[in-house]
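We treat protein structure as text, and this decision shapes the records that our systems exchange. Because each token names a local backbone shape, the row as a whole describes the fold. An entry from our holdings is shown next, in its original layout:
>
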Amino acid sequence: MNLLPTIQAYFDAERRADCQALLDCFATDATVRDEGRSHTGHYAIGSWWEDSKAKYRHVAEPLEAVGDTDSTRVLAKVTGAFPGSPAMLSFAFTLANDKIAALEIGA
């Protein structure tokens, strides 16, 4: 599967547990929505991601993607230390200037 470079970089950084590389994928004022909460800006996104990674020890494997250069939805198999693992989750990316402007993660 061919993902846009920014989205591929996000999943690569996530798999390597590389918070800085993951943050490099986001615009400075980006927002992530996950588990009913929003996190805006690099500091908040980094804190959310590090807390989530420590709690769930998750890894996301992209399986399919639909969309265009501005908006892409990726279906991924997420495994980790949480009830119901593995789970199929949707990652809805909004891109601007080759950076993630918004990401919503859900079932």
About this structure: The chain has one domain: 5-106. Residues 1 and 42 are 28 Å apart (CA to CA).
